[in-house]
Design a protein that fits this description.
2 copies of one chain form a homodimer. By secondary structure, the first copy, chain A, is an alpha/beta fold. Chain A has 3 domains: 53 residues, lambda repressor-like DNA-binding domains (434 Repressor (Amino-terminal Domain), Orthogonal Bundle), CATH 1.10.260; 126 residues, Response regulator (Rossmann fold), CATH 3.40.50.2300; 129 residues, 3-Layer(aba) Sandwich (Rossmann fold), CATH 3.40.50.2300. The first copy, chain A, contains 13 helices and 12 strands. In chain A, the strands form 2 sheets. A 6-stranded parallel β-sheet of chain A has the order 2-1-3-4-5-11, with helices on both faces. Chain A has a 6-stranded mixed β-sheet with strand order 7-6-8-9-10-12, sandwiched between helices. Chain A is elongated. At the A-B interface, helix 4, helix 5, strand 2 and helix 6 of A face helix 4, helix 5, strand 2 and helix 6 of B. Strand 2 of chain A pairs antiparallel with strand 2 of chain B, so a sheet runs across the interface. The first copy, chain A, binds a DNA duplex (16 and 16 nucleotides) through helix 2 and helix 4.
Chain lengths: 327, 327
Amino acid sequence: MTNENLTIDDIARELGVSKTTVSRSISGKGRISETTRRRVLDFIEKNNYKPNLMARGLAQSRTYNIGWVVPGDSEMTALSFFQQCMLGVIDVATQADYDLLITTIFDHNIGGLLRVLDNQKVDGVILGQTLTQDPAIRALKKSGIPFVTVGSTDEKNVVQVDHDHRNACRELASILKLKGIRSSVLIAGAENKVVTQARRRGFEEGMDGVSTTVYMNCERTEEIEQAVEDALRSKTDCIVCEDDRICYIVLGKLRRDGVPIPSGVRVASFYHSSLIEDSQPAITSLLYDPKALGATACRTLLAMIAGETTEPRQLLGYEVMLKASTL
Amino acid sequence: MTNENLTIDDIARELGVSKTTVSRSISGKGRISETTRRRVLDFIEKNNYKPNLMARGLAQSRTYNIGWVVPGDSEMTALSFFQQCMLGVIDVATQADYDLLITTIFDHNIGGLLRVLDNQKVDGVILGQTLTQDPAIRALKKSGIPFVTVGSTDEKNVVQVDHDHRNACRELASILKLKGIRSSVLIAGAENKVVTQARRRGFEEGMDGVSTTVYMNCERTEEIEQAVEDALRSKTDCIVCEDDRICYIVLGKLRRDGVPIPSGVRVASFYHSSLIEDSQPAITSLLYDPKALGATACRTLLAMIAGETTEPRQLLGYEVMLKASTL
DNA sequence: TTGAAAGCGCTAACAA
DNA sequence: TTGTTAGCGCTTTCAA
């Protein structure tokens, strides 16, 4: 409160020491007597001194920013995931005095990311979503900057943090199988998203031996509803939805068509969210922790920035929630 | 592509000029012969030189970042608004070589914002939401940094950009009145949000002469559903929802209770979004343009940073969408 | 029209 | 344990 733009020089002069001493007192690097250290720190506290991060950054070639890259055209339901994830990232970043610089990607246009990299505005990047043949990953690799992806990728040497989608989906699918399902349908979204592929694989592995049909690339409402109609016509026992949004649309369609759940058809979702949590009956689904995902990603990135070696791939757990929709 | 970390000195040496000349060629400040200017610019282009923004920032006391502050605990539906708004901000910011530093506020905890301000990591701030007695606005004013709010506020000397909620709501309400409504109910959310107040006022002004009841602070699903029950019991003609989420919950409740729209009760929403756009029948609502809001806010902020004077308050338009739900 | 030199506020060898 | 002295890469007076 006392002073506006106090610098390290002011403090040094005021205290009759060199600026190096002040710098060291703050950073804790180098040997310093506890008494002078205290003296400096007290002064700083009392006068509310805040180091200028630009100057520090210039001297250390650091920005104290990390890039947070998300799709700019997400569905409302995906937004919630990114938001949760980001909160985890922020939590961890803040602890280390880092801030988040946000960048969006539209379709495959990574111009925003490139700008940030070119301008050296971040020390590392967290990629919020992975695609097959992901141009963002390519650019990041090429730039040489530390980065971690939230979501899996086949690209070599990419540090990644993800939910264990494949095992989760396999587990849920095999439970459904055990319940005596004879045929099932998976309605899934864009197949260029890595997560879609993982879920599909888990589904097929878990449903092994059961007659299955898969509808890929169901993005628009009409496509999803069409898939539901097909599924009902084929007398399937169970409709499995690749994510919460698809499930939400499926539920609406079934309701309007007067198809009861689970007696008419059973329904399960590979992703749980508030969008489907109030459904009657409650929907069997998989529960994850996006915030933990973000936190883990950020911790990992900070370690990389600090030059430490890290786990190349971390998979976080999940929870199977069995509800009345698949009785 | 050619070089990794080219500096202004390298260029100067290479071209046999001083770094001042190079700096001037880039910035366009100061007099320079067109020939040398071209020579420098060509070299830069050819060698893919990118100025170090930290260094430039230190010299100019600028960060080339703007702070983007949003609530960290938004409902899924509000997220969509902030996302749209942010896209508008990014569009404009990018043009001016600015990036977005994101900060979240939980409840009334503005710690994150304070950190960013203390650390001087931004040249200006856009506040994504305003509250009555807003602690963020207080902190921003005190800091002296340029800022603009998305949403209105009563605080003096705050540059603000907003949709014209009050007039929009008044217009919609008065149209409903003209349709012969005898009594109506407004179900609204948190009253500490400025926007809630504006909508309420618009509603009451437009409904002047009509018997009205207002339910404030309906946030949880049960509260909203309770309000619906009360409204139905009181035989109201029309339920007006303060936002899309409330409307979404109201629609669900009416459906389950078997109340037809509009014959059983009419329904309108003061905010349109994808959440209610597929409803049957279509819902009468107000349509805004959050992206334009963000873009305007950012343009205004950039002008302020540049030292220009700006409109203290800008209100953007809206569109009344009359649909079957209020026939 | 151009250049020399000081400085933005901090860190980090290297000395003392 | 502390201080001296160069930088980090750029902008900006002030001279030439």
